[in-house]
Amino acid sequence: MSRRCEFTGKGWLSGNQVSHANNKTKTRFMPNLCDVTLMSEALGNSYSFRISANALKSVEHRGGLDAYLLKAKNDELSAKALKLKRAIAKKLEGQKAA
Predict the structure, then answer these.
(1) Exposure b/e, 7-29, CB count within 10 A at least 16 = b
(2) What is the CA angle 73-13-15, rounded to 5?
(3) What is the pLDDT of residue 30?
(4) CATH number reported for the structural domain that contains residue 53 in this entry
(5) Helices (H) and strands (E) in the chain, counts
């Protein structure tokens, strides 16, 4: 399982840990990933994702999973999230036509 956010694409960063004596040690800074289950209002199902805490705040700020995915860029989303985005868009398009 990769250490990458499924919504934002955030991964690990490399850098130096610097001591008080200015000794430098290579380190990897990992993203704060959370296993969450989010509800899609359009589809009526729950979906589990591994996303960063920052992305979770953004989902809540935008008004839920559906609104977040419809606004998100396709190149940042994982394959699973992109498939869900297309399903939500198709469902909402069908509701507008009816």
Answers:
(1) bbebeeeeeeeeeeeeeeeeeee
(2) 150
(3) 95
(4) 2.30.170.40
(5) 3, 4
